[in-house]
UniProtKB/TrEMBL annotation:
Keywords: DNA replication, DNA-binding, Nucleus
This protein's name: DNA polymerase II subunit 2
Gene3D superfamilies: 1.10.8.60
Species per Swiss-Prot/TrEMBL record: Cynara cardunculus var. scolymus
Signal peptide range in chain numbering: none
Location of the protein in the cell: Nucleus
Taxon lineage: Eukaryota, Viridiplantae, Streptophyta, Embryophyta, Tracheophyta
């Protein structure tokens, strides 16, 4: 490898506080030789991983570098295996902790994929980025809606005037109607604020649109700045949705969902239509059965008597192997997934989430939802999570979330189907072009749902009493 790369490695290591011995330097150069035209990214990844190692000294010898290189090579091999599986199979289950993480860069106006390790226990900046990422995700979506973009010359204004979104810090001293987007925060007891990336302003809350509005909800508000420094809200609601095809077309080539991409021959098999039509009236065994826990309602580990009350933090890992291995012997094709988890079935993207979400959203709601469009609580819930592009947009004090893995709960681009395993009654609702249903409780009232991905048909079912 060239002397230029050797000097670059030494310089970057020195910036991180490391001094390299000759053997360690040669080990790093050997590793980088496998990544032609991507040496910088590979070196950054190696140095990131070194920071998580227990090092005896800042002077690095061959052993710790070799250990990290082995870890990265194993991870790369596993990723290639997963990619190979996902691109050749029509069916894949994506674990929450393997979902790719993308962060929107408002300067370059593009999504950048996170590389490197995501520790379970994040630092303080990780919590701040959790909220920032949610806000930027919806902000970039909103920026493509003509009504809220910067007005051009000779453009007729709406009845409200310009709908261009203003930063909250720019409201100071401004008169007239303004539109802002921000997060509802309670910075003082009993006083609610709207907060964006620039500032916060106190607001008055009114019952206006469909959905549940709790703390941390991101809203679009129209109002006027008062002399006392409060923002008098005239109307507010969720940021408008964006069609999933439009979302996907804006950033082609990025696998947000985590299921890989299907080869063209698997998505364009028109010649099979005649064959498949012959089976239209034949009863066929479903290709997949999904069982949504709780699978540990009773203590499993009799020694510790603790597995009945696992951590409530999201996302949740799959059941450990020592619990499932006996069942796996009898059902070898069984897959024990995380919560939430995602399933890709050909072109269909389906999200499964097991949580008593409706009850908790209603408890955390700051104001009663509007009944103008609907009075159905489940429809309000669907509107909330889809407009927020998040499976569980509750305050972290109500529902803890692993800061570095909040992206696992993002709903962007919106999936084709969302399955909410809720304790509430069985329901199905199609909102815009998103199919959402709650199969109900099979153990309590024997309800279940039959779902046909080919036409996205939901059949609410139950066993006879």
């Amino acid at each position: 490898m060239s002397g230029t790369m050797r000097n670059k490695v030494q310089r970057k290591c020195k910036m991180r506080g490391y001094t390299l011995k000759v053997e360690a330097l040669n080990e790093i150069l050997s590793f980088l030789s496998n990544y032609e035209d991507a040496e910088d990214e590979a070196l950054d990844l190696l140095l990131d991983e070194l920071q998580h190692q227990s090092l005896k000294s800042s002077i690095l010898d061959k052993e710790p570098v070799q250990r990290v290189v082995s870890l990265l090579c194993e991870a790369g091999s596993a990723a290639e295996d997963n990619l190979s599986t996902s691109t050749t199979s029509s069916f894949s289950v994506i674990d929450a902790f393997l979902i790719p993480k993308f962060r929107y860069d408002p300067i370059r106006k593009m999504f950048c994929e996170h590389t490197g390790r995501l520790p379970i226990h994040g630092d303080a900046p990780a919590k701040a980025w959790l909220y920032r990422d949610r806000f930027l995700l919806l902000s970039q979506r909103l920026s493509r809606i003509p009504q809220f973009s910067s007005p051009s010359f000779n453009t007729e204004l709406s009845e409200f005037g310009s709908c261009q979104i203003s930063q909250i810090q720019s409201l100071v001293g401004r008169t007239g109607i303004s539109w802002v987007m921000g997060v509802i925060s309670q910075l003082e007891d009993g006083h609610f604020y709207l907060e964006d990336l620039t500032a916060a302003v106190e607001i008055n809350l009114y019952k206006i649109t469909t959905g549940y509005f709790s703390e941390n909800t991101i809203v679009l508000a129209q109002g006027e700045m008062m002399l006392d420094g409060t923002f008098q809200v005239q109307t507010f609601g969720f940021p408008p949705l964006e069609d999933r095809e439009k979302s996907a077309s804006m950033f082609t080539g990025l696998d947000y969902f985590g299921g890989g991409t299907l080869p063209k021959e698997d998505t364009t098999m028109a010649k099979l239509e005649t064959v498949l039509d012959g089976y239209e009236d034949v009863e066929v065994v479903p290709s997949l059965f999904v069982l949504m826990g709780n699978f540990c309602s009773h203590p499993f580990n009799l020694s510790y008597n603790s597995f009945s009350s696992p951590s409530t933090v999201l996302p949740r890992c799959a059941l450990p192997k020592y619990i499932t291995e006996e069942l796996q012997k009898h059902i070898p094709n069984a897959i024990f997934a995380s919560n939430p988890c995602r399933i890709k079935f050909y072109t269909q993207e389906i999200v499964f989430f097991r949580q008593d979400l409706l009850y908790r959203m209603r408890r955390s709601c700051l104001i009663p939802p509007s009944t103008e469009e609907t009075s159905d609580p489940f429809e309000h819930l669907v509107a909330t999570i889809t407009h927020q592009s998040h499976l569980c947009p509750l305050p972290l004090s109500v529902q803890p979330i692993i800061w570095n893995y909040d992206h696992c709960l993002h709903l962007y681009p919106t999936p084709h189907t969302i399955v909410l395993g809720d304790n509430s009654e069985q329901k199905a609702f199609k909102y815009t072009d998103i199919t959402c249903f709650n199969p109900g409780s099979f153990s309590n009232d024997s309800t279940f749902v039959v779902y046909r991905p080919c036409n996205r048909e939901v059949e609410l079912s139950a066993l006879d009493a």
